[in-house]
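Project standup — Tuesday

K.O.: blocked on the structure for the chain from last sprint. Re-posting the sequence here as requested.
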Amino acid sequence: MKKIKGLDLFCGAGGSSLGARAAGVEIVGAIDAWDVAAETYKDNFPQAEVITARLDDNSDTSLFSRVDTVDLLIASPECTHHSIARGAKPRCETSRRSGWYVMPFVRKYEPRWIVLENVSGMRRWDGYKELINELSEHYHLRVQMLDAANFGVPQTRKRLFILGDRLRKPAKILPTESCSQASVILDEPYAWKARPVFGGHLSENTIARVNRGMSELGKGKDFLVVYYGSDRAGGWQPLDRPIRTLTTVDRFGLVRWTEGVATFRMLQVPELRRAMGYPENAKLERGSRRDRVKLLGNGVCPPVMQAAVTSLTSEALKESATLSKTRSVNGRMSVAA
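H.V.: unblocked you, prediction finished:
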């Protein structure tokens, strides 16, 4: 049976491609503007042709010299200037237009399927409807909001998915697993250095967050301190629910009781990897700690992309398998005759 070949635009560290590969796709090429992301991607997909370049309206589709056939195009255009996390800061239209930069590759390779992923705020962009109309000229589309917590990922992470199939309307993507608790991402006690909460090293605002959590949960209960939040949740969350959305900066601290003393530390990269649903064998070794936090916060949860790609391609794969089986049976009958 023919292997589905995939191309990943705005690939980042490769979260989308890890999910697509888990769904049976062979990744043949990828592109990202950030060298740390591209090098990380190469570590995980050494057979793919990986290009470090910034896409724009004038991008040359001949960037790839070894990519000839593409069945699936996946892309996560820049989301910063669509995100509500940006607040009232000015928006860059060049960044917001990055969804359009997939179109030259759609026209050149004519992939059977596409998956575009972005933050929900993309729908409020003035050019969104025009982009959807353009994609509709080539594909039957389904637009769906997916929460990673419904796909076995211990994180609440809602993202917009635009799925396209040239031959049929994509089916609705159904949840695969119930959400996990944030507690499952944590390393064992003493794995990382932590200091007493009330040792004088934390800011007044952080102490206020800690006190609110302790007041609600009581002594002896571990919980997370949450920075940069705007949801009026008090700057903390319990561990018996999915962690809130990871961003490109350090956002989560852990209050853990050790021998009767409340200690504090920031969550570490291995824990954030688990919060994104990255497989244990995925490599994330390039750049500084800050770079790795950014790579994860900018990324796509692999289990969600796996579900999206599986939903898109499963019917075609079944049909291909049935056809191959029929040909095989007919071939044996012909020989027997």
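K.O.: great, moving the ticket to review. Residues 188-267 form one domain. The chain has two domains: 4-178+289-324, 188-267.
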